[in-house]
Amino acid sequence: MQELLRANGVSKHFGGVTAVDGASLSVEAGTITGLIGPNGAGKTTMFNILSGTLRPDGGQVTFAGIDITGWPAERISRTGLTRTFQIARGFPSLTVLESLMLYAPGQAGDDIRTAIFRPSRWREQDRRIAARAAEVADKLRLTEVLDNRTEALSGGQKKLLEIGRALMAEPRLILLDEPVAGVNPSLSRDIADVLAGLRDDGYTFLVVEHDMDTVARLCDPVVVMAEGRDLATGSFKEVTANRAVQDAYLGHVPA
Ligand SMILES: Nc1ncnc2c1ncn2[C@@H]1O[C@H](COP(=O)(O)OP(=O)(O)OP(=O)(O)O)[C@@H](O)[C@H]1O
Ligand SMILES: [Mg+2]
Question: Which CATH architecture is the domain 3-80+171-250 placed in?
Answer without folding.
Answer: 3-Layer(aba) Sandwich (3.40)
